[in-house]
Amino acid sequence: MKFYKEENFKEIDGLRVPEDWDVVELKDVCKKIKAGGTPKTSVKEYYESGTIPFVKIEDITNSNKYLTYTKVKITEKGLNNSNAWIVPKNSVLFAMYGSIGETAINKIEVATNQAILGIIPKGEVLESEFLYYILAKNKNYYSKLGMQTTQKNLNAQIVKTFKIPLPPIEEQKAIAERLKSIDELIEIKRKEKEQLEKAKKKIMDLLLTGKIRVKNLNS
After folding, report:
1. Alpha-carbon distance 172 to 126, whole Å?
2. pLDDT confidence bin for 6, thresholds 50/70/90
3. The pLDDT of residue 150
4. Of 20, 86, 116, 121, which residue has the fewest beta carbons closer than 10 angstroms?
5. 125 touches 161 (CB < 8 A)
6. Helices (H) and strands (E) in the chain — how many of each?
7. DSSP-derived secondary structure for 135-190
8. For residue 80, which phi and psi values (nearest 5 degrees)?
9. DSSP class of residue 50?
10. Pairing relationship of beta strands 103-106 and 66-67 according to DSSP bridges
11. What angle do CA 139, 140, 141 make, to 5 degrees?
């Protein structure tokens, strides 16, 4: 990694970035930014035997970056009779209501409800993984921004005007790859912690019920 001196930076729209980076509005580097919609839950044929994964906020919060599963699925008829649309895989999902700023990359084709934006970056100028990290980094800011609006939520028009730093595409990929490797290490440590906690629970049960006895350390 290379550290740059202060004089190698510039300021654009309140963001300080390296001289060879740009600052853009999100809508200018995306093919599509659109919310979904919810088929009427009272119509069984919109949901029964559905095959289209339907994303709600809790699916994003439970996804741990990559969304590969949803609890609810809808049918083609449900899709066609609502504002839901098919968000292609490897797009970015962004929550505008409730858990404002929660973000995930969908690894499968999905439809979403109206609280979630499907964001399709222009791949030649904006990398999905890089956008994910930019949005995740600014989650607290977006949440506060939503609280400042009259409805206490964000909307598509506000999100479209988000200003983001834009490095060259190859640098975006390198940044995302570095951060992804850290995420993978965190996940390994999390699983190790879970295994240790399970082992501790079993040992506690054995020791604290007398099923396993230990000698007095002073004897």
Report:
1. 8
2. low
3. 64
4. 20
5. no
6. 6, 12
7. HHHTHHHHHHHHHTSTTSS--HHHHHT-EEEE--HHHHHHHHHHHHHHHHHHHHHH
8. -75, -15
9. -
10. parallel
11. 90
Provide CB contacts within 8 A for 73, sequence distance 6+.
Answer: 47, 50, 51, 52, 53, 54
At 62, which amino acid appears? N
Task: Give alpha helix (H) positions in 6-127.
Answer: 57-61, 76-80
pLDDT, position 146: 78
Q: Measure the CA–CA gap between 6 and 29, rounded to whole angstroms.
A: 27
Give me the architecture of the 6-167 domain, per CATH: Alpha-Beta Complex (3.90)
pLDDT digits (tens, 9 = 90+) for 71-110: 999 999 999 999 999 999 999 999 999 889 999 999 999 9
Give residues with Cβ within 8 angstroms of 123, minimum separation 6: none
Cβ neighbour number for residue 24 with a 10 Å cutoff: 18
